[in-house]
Amino acid sequence: MSKNDPMVLSETKLNRAKLWQIVLFTLNNSSTNIYMFAFGFVTYYSTGLVGLAALFVSQIMGYIRIFDGLIDPAIGVLIDKTDTKFGKYRPIMVLGNVITVLSFLILFNIHSLGDGMKIPIFLLSLVVHKIGYSLQATVTKAGQAALTSDPKQRPIFNIVDGWVTTLLFTGGQIVVANFLVPKYGGFTPEFFKVFIPGVMVISAILGILAVIGIAQKDNKQYFGIGEKTTKTSFKDYWEIIKGNKPLQMLTMAAAFVKFNSAMFGDQIVLMILFGIIFGNFGLSGTISLVLILPNLMFTTFAATIAQKRGLRYSYVRYLQGGVISLALLGGLLFFANPGDLSFSNPSLWTVAFVIVFACAKGFSSTPTGLALTMAADVSDYETSVSGRYVSGMLSTMFSLTDSVASSFAPMSIGWVLAAVGFAKVFPTADTPLSPQLRLAGIVLLAVLPLVGTLIALAFMKFYPLNKETMEGIQIKIAEMKQGNPSDGDAEMPQAIPNTIPAMND
Asked: Computed from CA positions of residues 30, 31, 33, 37, in that sequence, does the dihedral angle turn out positive or negative?
């Protein structure tokens, strides 16, 4: 029987997790995602209550994400070097959540400060927030390498994460757009006094459950090849980054996909789409409710394909679907007007828009979740090549490129809106639709995401970790754990082909 035969993998002792462990650990991503959702309202808080200029805030929000990316490698090294009686990952998760809570307590009380203190404290709280957020969020990618090495189990994370994230963001948008905003008359101090504490409590509960989920796997025997893992010094990190082609290709592709996801989730973009083009911001909550089932189907189908054909295959196919649906979305928005979208009396136009919007958002955003799991594949690849376990540093390389690329989301929004006359204040639900705002909406929701998707596809053409390759990598890691003479060698795993796999493998 060939070493690369999938039957060999089924006989190999893999590190498998219980279903409840995967489900609970998935909630770590949800715990940080709810802060990402809340972070979308910082622009309205800082311009409406603090009194900062819209273009200034949009640029600062972009720069702070770049800062987030720049500190990520240091956080990755910190995770790799962490070794306590409570494990590697759990202390970082708890510390990150506590810091994030403190940052929000400061950030959303700036309006009560004197004018001379507002900008310095605003910037400081953003910096502290990104440190805490990055600490906890990095564990989501890094911890998966220890949670399970079974290629069929890893996509389960994507299914659960997709379901929870969809329910979390949909529920959040409905609560904000249909309850809190009408009740408190917009993004007022009373709105934030209710909204922000709720975010903190929900995030903390989800974080605690995630700590429980990873607890059993958070020990050295599940890190790489266990006690045989090659020690890594600081000088080794650059060689690892330089020599890991899967890392280079996937991080670049994932960065542009994250940009797309950020655009579809940005509150200003949603305001332009639903509050101005369609004339009713409450529709953003309604359509979130309507899209719950389609979003769950997109996520579940992507993970199901990944279990059968591999994560790379699923990732590429979804990007290809995104190219088509984003082009169609741009065409529909060109003809859209206030009142066209109605769920009380749906027309054929409403049905067409919902289908196209669901496909554009689903195809272009779902790969973001797949990349979380693919980061574990990249970590395993590095272990099979060098014998090193550096899941923390490798995971933060994804965060670095994600942060740099996604920083262009608020920056792009600011530039586009400034170009159409909104440099000082952002458009609101009371802003009338103009040809310039329609064009801005098309650029932000269709043109820029389409360009990002095409670039991501180009990078994925050179990403080699397909289904067969990953099976060979898990075989080699198992042999290295058992003391095979080839332990820790720097040779390419035999399962990795010498040529780049075709787009349809």
From this structure: positive
Q: In whole angstroms, what is the distance from residue 443 CA to residue 421 CA?
A: 15
CA 401-319-167 angle, 5° bins: 80
The percentage of residues in the chain with a pLDDT greater than 70, rounded to a whole number, is 90
**DSSP secondary structure code for residue 433 in this structure:** P
Number of H helices, E strands in the chain: 22, 0
203 falls in which pLDDT band (50, 70, 90)?
Answer: very high
Whole-angstrom distance, CA of residue 161 vs CA of residue 30: 7
Measured CA distances, 454 to 91, 364, 448 (Å): 39, 11, 10
Q: How far apart are CA 265 and CA 273, in angstroms?
A: 12
Contact indicator for 319, 456 with CB cutoff of 8 Å: yes
pLDDT of residue 440: 93
Four-residue CA torsion sign, 416, 422, 428, 429: negative
Which helix (H) or strand (E) covers residue 370, if one does? helix 348-386
- Predicted confidence at residue 174, as pLDDT, reads 83
CA distances from 471 to 128, 220, 264, 376, 468 (A): 41, 23, 35, 13, 5
- Check: CB of residue 203 under 8 Å from CB of residue 172: no
CATH class of 6-481: mainly alpha
Q: Under 8 Å CB-to-CB from 482, ≥6 apart: which residues?
A: none
* Nearest Cα to Cα of residue 29 among 177, 187, 153, 136: 136
pLDDT of residue 460: 95
SS3 content of the chain, % helix, strand, coil (to 5): 75, 0, 25
- Helices 283-290 and 348-386 cross at an angle (nearest 10°) of 70
* Closest by CA position to 476, among listed 494, 490, 498, 501: 494
Q: Parse the chain into domains and list their residue ranges.
A: 6-481
496 in the Ramachandran plot: left (φ > 0), alpha (ψ -120 to 50) or beta? beta
Burial class (CB in 10 A: 0-12, 13-18, 19+), 229: buried
